[in-house]
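User: My collaborator sent over this chain with a note saying "see what the structure looks like." That's all I know about it. Can you take a look?
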Amino acid sequence: MLTITDALKKHLKNPELFAQLVTLAGPDAGEGSKRFAVHNPSTGDLLAHLPDMGAGETAATINRAYAAQELWAGLTARARSEILWEWHRLILEHGDDLAAILTAEMGKPFVEAKSEITHAAAYLQWYAEEANRIYGETISAPSNDRRMLVIKQPIGVVGAITPWNFPASMVARKISPALAAGCTVVLKPAEQTPLVAGAMFVLAQKAGFPDGVLNLIYASEGDAVGRELCTNPKVRKISFTGSTEVGRLLMRQCSDQIKKVSFELGGNAPFIVFDDADINAAVDGAIQAKFRNGGQTCVSANRIYVQSSVHDQFSEKFTDRVRHLHVGDGFDPDVAIGPLIDTQALAKIEAHVDDAVGKGAAIRCGGRRVGDSGTFFQPTVITNVVSTMRLAQEETFGPLAPIICFDDPDQVVREANDTIYGLAAYFYASNLKRVWKVAEALEYGMVGINTGRMSSEAAPFGGIKQSGIGREGSRHGLEDYLEMKYLCMGGL
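Assistant: Without extra context I'll predict from the sequence alone. Here is the result:
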C-alpha cells in the first residue's frame, strides 16, 4: 500500500485528491508487497512509502496495457484528443499542488517547479491537437488497375522510463504523443521522484482514460523493470531518458526483438561566447543555460568557452551574477538553487572541483558544500580551465561553471565537437556569416543561438552521436509512435 506523510500533505491545497495515489500501484502491489521510501533532498523528511514492484508486477502491468491497446487504438482521433485536452485542463487546475509535490521530492525552487508543470501541460495540449493530424498519403500508381496508399497506425504498447530531474515534463513529453497516436503506456518514473508522476496519473484517471491505457510502475531499482519492458514481446517500443551508459544497456536488451527505441541520453553542452557577442545577453543566457534546475539538466552548459578579447569582461560579470544566486530549500521564495538530488551527485561535483584545482584551475566563487545537512552546493565559477580536466570531459550535472579561454574561432568549434555527445550546444555572436557557419558546424541535435533556453513542445528535442536516437516534441515526436503501412490495391 502506498502512503504519503504529513511532511508532504502540509504543502498541498488538496491532499485528499492526491491521497488517491494509493490506487495507482495496481492489484499486484498489495499490502504484503515490499516498499521503498521517498525523501525530500532538502530536509531529509520522509514523504511517502511506495510499493516496490519488480519483474512479475511489470509483466502483469504490460498485460493490462496490451489488453487495452485495441480499444484505445480503435477510438477516433477526436475522442483521444478530447481526453488529452481534459487532462491538460486538470493539470493546470491543480498546478500548485503538482509543483509542491515536485519541489518536495526533487528540491527545485517552487517557481521553477510551477514552470515545469505548465511546460508539461503544454505537451498535452500540443499532442491533443496533433492527434487529429495523423495523415496518410496516396501515391501515383504505375498502372490504371492499381491504387497505392500509405496509412499510419499506432505501434502498440510503449514502455517509458523517465528521469528524476524533470519528473513532470518528461512524463508528459514521452507519453502524450504515444497516447495521441493510439498507444497504451507502461511508465516507470525515477525512484527518487515518482510522486508527481503518480499525482499526474490521478488526474489522468479523472480525465477519462480507459482502464489499462495508462499504467504506472513504482520501483526502487530499475534493472528488473527495465529488462522486462525491453524483453517482453508485448511491448513494441521503449522510450528512455537518462544516462548514455544505461541507454546502451537498454538497447542491447531490446536488440533481440529489433524493438523500436527512442533515447534521450547524456550531454556535454558547449556554450561559446565570441568577441562580437552582446556580453550582457551572453551572461544572462549562460546563467539560464548553466544554473536552471541547479545545473541538473541534460542540456546544461557544461563547458563555457569565451574568446580571449572578451574573456575577462564576461568572467567578471558572470561571476558577480553567480555570487548572488541564493541556495536553499525550494520552498523558500528567495532560493534560486535547490539541493543536488543525492549524496552521489554531491560527491561528483566535489571531485570535479578538486581535480580542476589540482591541475591549476582557479575558483572565482563557490566551490564548497552549503550547511551540514541536505545536499546543497554553492554555485561555482572556475577559470583557467583546460580541456584535460574532468569537468571538461564529463557531464557534471550540478551548479559548476568552468570557463575556458580561446583565441581561434575555428579551433573552438572543433573542441566543442570533440566529445561522444551531441545533445545541445549554445553560442553568442552577432555577425550573421559567423552565426550560420557555427550553427551548421556544431555537431549537436539542438543549437541555441543568442539564447540560453530552447525547449518547446513545438520543436524537436533530441541529440545525435551517443546522446540519443529519435526526437520528442513537435510533429516529429508523434512519428516515433506510429508504424507506416503501404497498401497496394489491385484488380481495380
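A starting point for your reply to your collaborator: Residues 3-265+467-486 form a domain with the Aldehyde Dehydrogenase; Chain A, domain 1 fold (CATH 3.40.605.10).
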